[in-house]
Amino acid sequence: MAEIKYKRSPNIDELENEFCSYFINKMNGVFDNGKKQAVVMLSGGKTPLGFYKKLSLAVNGIIKPAGENNYCQSEFPDLKIPGVNFDFGKITFLLGDERNVSENDSESNFGNIVKNLCGGVIGKKQLLPVTNGFEIPAVCSRRYDELIKKNAPGGVIDLLVLGIGDDGHTASLFPWTIYPVCVENHLISGIEISEKKLCENSRHASIPLFISHYVPRLSSVRFTITEEVIINAGNIAVILTGKNKIRAVDMINDKKLSSAEVPAKLIFKAANRGVKKEVTFFTDMDFEILF
Questions:
Q1: Any residues with CB less than 8 A from the CB of 105 and at least 6 apart, and which?
Q2: Are 149 and 155 in contact (CB under 8 A)?
Q3: Per-residue model confidence as pLDDT tens digits over 153-174
Q4: Residues facing 224 on adjacent strands
Q5: Quick check: 83 and 93 in contact, CB under 8 A?
Q6: 3-state DSSP call for residue 1?
Q7: Residue 192, beta-bridge partner list
Q8: What is the pairing mode between strands 71-74 and 81-82?
Q9: Percent of the chain with pLDDT over 90
Q10: How large is the average pLDDT for residues 200-209?
Q11: pTM
Q12: DSSP state for residue 214 in the 8-state scheme
């Protein structure tokens, strides 16, 4: 079971500042443990863009490295930036979800994150896109699945940033989402695939980490990570702001509802009991996750 922490404030600017410190502390930990390269997976959508923008401004606004108090001197006196013990160029950024549009489209998660995060110490080439909007979605998702497996062996992401919709979706895993992949004896998006439903040619298929699927309520194709990435992540930052999201919290806490109905429940599921998992909420609401 995951350890759940909360960063609360009614002030979004304060939450963004907390996120900056959190991000740097987590990356310090990754590199202090001897890793040569870190992998961060980012949530799409509009809500986290301000957090990414503040992170970019924070790391590019460092005037002097950390002093005796282990905080950097910054252009932003109200923002306490921890000492940075790593090279930002050693971080690979991946997308946890994407729309089936070109990179230049206003709805492109890649395009919007580039505008808000990249520039200065975080380069555009560090963020790996899913699609150019002109290829078959299955081809794009298969290629990105391979890219994730190459950069994050075993699908283990150093830091996963997620949001939660008011309907309980996370990434682009929506309630009762149609899932096109059959894998033997595996729980996919909370729905157990029985042997009778197995696709004839998929009995020995490797478990996908990234897929493209049709979302009926949106009448469109979406790209998304699968539950494997979510349950294997050791550190998950959940950006949950807006009073309308309290409905999602109620659904997460409702033990009668499954992760098929509320995919966000997967956030609190650990791959195995021997691995420590930490989920940190950045929120403007007062609630507790009951697990």
A1: 99, 111, 133
A2: yes
A3: 888 999 999 999 999 999 999 9
A4: 97, 211
A5: no
A6: coil
A7: 187
A8: antiparallel
A9: 70
A10: 56
A11: 0.89
A12: E
Q: What is the DSSP string of the chain?
A: --EEEEEE-S-HHHHHHHHHHHHHHHHHHHHHTT-S-EEEEE--SSTTHHHHHHHHHHHHTEEE---TTSEEEES-TT--EEPP-S-GGGEEEEESEEESS-TTSTT-HHHHHHHHH-BTTB-GGGBPPS--SSS-HHHHHHHHHHHHHHHSGGG--SEEEEE--TTS-BTTB-TT-------TT-EETTEE--GGG--TT-TTPPPPSEEEEEEGGGTEEEEEE-HHHHHH-SEEEEEE-SGGGHHHHHHHH-TTS-TTT-GGGGGG--S-TTS--EEEEEESS------
> And the tokens for 215?
């979302």
| Residue 155 backbone phi and psi in degrees, to 5 | 75, 20
Q: DSSP for 47-102?
A: TTHHHHHHHHHHHHTEEE---TTSEEEES-TT--EEPP-S-GGGEEEEESEEESS-
Q: What integer is the mean pLDDT of 214-242?
A: 93
User: Given this model, what pLDDT does residue 49 score?
Assistant: 97
The pLDDT confidence band at residue 270, using thresholds 50, 70 and 90, is confident
- pLDDT score of 206: 72
How is residue 196 written in tokens? 């009778």
61 exposed, middle or buried (CB, 10 Å; 0-12, 13-18, 19+)? middle
Q: Give the number of other CB atoms < 10 A from CB of residue 57.
A: 18
Cα separation, 115 vs 94, whole angstroms? 15
Given a cut of 70, is residue 271 above it in pLDDT?
A: no
Q: Which of 18-22, 94-98, 192-196, 229-233 has the lowest mean pLDDT?
A: 192-196
Among 178, 182, 202, 206, smallest CA distance to 192 is for: 182
Rounded distance, CA 291 to CA 289, Å? 6
